[in-house]
Specification:
single chain, 448 residues, mainly alpha, 20 helices
């Protein structure tokens, strides 16, 4: 064979490899810019969705009047959880859309829907002005946002992880968690700033609406920065996804992948319960401990800040030591420390101790969250990956994360014990560990 023929074959082989490895494709923007575009857009949506939790007490007072602190807390946390009811539905239908029309198209749609939800909350008059229509508007907005975020996670996670190579998916999963936690940190800092510098009257009249105004304005920014992303859904996978009707596709996923789906939901339970209790429930739990609202928001800042810093590091560790053994170790640690952690902050309710415990719980939640993200991505083949991720993540988060504040508050009321949130964490840890034998270790192996 001549040198020219060898060079030609090498060139063709290089093109084939590049086509099969989206992480190496160089388009109009660099790989780094692509990753930033994916994670920033994802972070914008989480900022809009989670901002509600940081002002839940004020929103509850204005839109959900009730007699008694616990009754109002239950209504507040239930409304926070309502946004998660729509997530599995959004995850299913927008996930199918992402597997057929492409990841980019789905991500553009989810940003637009999220902006609509923010606009409704931003403009909704309180209960004193329009009566029962006020809470109806808030519930509607939360359902729209939940539907949108349900589709975002499958599309953006699929795209991001398909950019990674076989030895860096843990790190990329950490970047996904970084974007979510950084957005929550931004929401926490904004909430802390507003509660510190605004009077109670100003905060309740207009200050609480500011995060939703920011979220609404950032929607077009998210669409803009994602416009030149390289699409990782190849023609073959796209055609395979399109070959079945929506009804057939849904039936196939649940009939052929039900074991994988159940195992994935069990894994998600431990990570999402820890995240929503340590990062989003603490502003509400601080009220139970008779701390001021600023203490709860400061705790959220500590939790989300720690999670943002350590998420990529956790991902890199997972790439080195493997997923399963790390998951078993971290979930076991969380199960052991959950109850003592809540005992400490209840027996010695000081600000430094409260922030330390919250930061430690957030770190454990981040470790599990990164592993959870990687596992559910590696479970599904490309032509149903966005749909599979969306179903597992959204059902898991809806059942065990979104209603974690409500369940924790309800358990406190029923038991009379402030330690009740730790019992819920322990239950989710046990559920997660029960699914580990059904997981396949794919560290260092290619995605299907």
């Amino acid at each position: 064979m001549s040198m020219i023929e060898e060079a030609t074959l090498d060139s063709r082989a290089s093109v084939t490899i590049a086509e099969k490895s989206p992480a190496k494709v160089q388009g109009k923007i660099s790989k780094v810019k692509s990753i930033v575009a994916i994670t920033v857009g994802n972070g914008l949506e989480f900022f809009e969705f989670t901002s509600y939790s940081f002002f839940a007490i004020i929103i509850g007072k204005l839109f959900f009047p009730a007699e008694g602190d616990i009754a109002q807390l239950l209504m507040i946390t239930a409304t926070f959880g309502i946004g998660f009811i729509a997530r599995p539905v959004g995850g299913l239908f927008l996930g199918l859309y992402a597997d057929r029309a492409g990841r980019k198209a789905a991500m553009t749609l989810t940003l637009s829907l999220m902006a609509i939800g923010s606009a409704i909350i931003l403009l909704a008059p309180p209960y004193a002005y329009i009566g029962v229509a006020a809470p109806v508007l808030i519930v509607l907005a939360r359902l729209i946002q939940g539907f949108a975020l349900g589709g975002e996670i499958g599309a953006s996670t699929s795209l991001l992880m398909e950019y990674a190579d076989n030895n860096s998916r843990g790190f990329y999963g950490g970047l996904q968690l970084l974007s979510q936690n950084a957005s929550a940190l931004a929401g926490s800092l904004l909430g802390l700033t507003l509660t510190t510098f605004l009077s109670t009257e100003s905060l309740e009249s207009w200050g609480w609406r500011l995060p939703f105004a920011i979220g609404l304005l950032m929607g077009p920014l998210g669409v803009f920065i994602r416009r030149n992303l390289h699409e990782t859904l190849d023609h073959e996978a796209q055609e395979e996804a399109k070959s079945k009707s929506t009804k057939q596709a849904i039936g196939t996923i649940f009939s052929e992948q039900w074991r994988v789906i159940l195992a994935g939901i069990a894994i998600v339970s431990a990570g999402t319960s820890a995240v929503y209790i340590s990062m989003y429930y603490m502003p509400t739990y601080a009220k139970i401990l008779h701390f001021p609202m600023t203490t709860g928001l400061l705790a959220s800042c500590v939790a989300t800040g720690a999670a943002s810093i350590f998420a990529p590091i956790c991902g890199m560790i997972a790439d080195r030591v493997g997923r399963k053994k790390m998951l078993i170790m971290i979930v076991t640690v969380q199960m052991i420390v959950a109850c003592p952690a809540f005992m400490i902050i209840n027996s010695h309710p000081s600000l430094p101790l409260f922030l330390t415990v919250v930061g430690a719980l957030a770190l454990l939640a981040t470790l599990i969250g990164v592993l959870m993200t990687v596992f559910i991505t590696e479970m599904f083949p490309k032509h149903i990956r966005a749909t599979g991720i969306s179903i597992v993540y959204c059902v898991g988060v809806s059942l065990f994360g979104g209603f974690a504040p409500f369940i924790s508050t309800l358990l406190i009321q029923l038991s009379g014990s402030n330690l009740a949130p730790s019992w819920y964490l322990i239950f989710c840890c046990v559920l997660c560990l029960s699914a580990v034998p059904f997981l396949v270790e794919k560290n260092g192996k290619s995605l299907d």
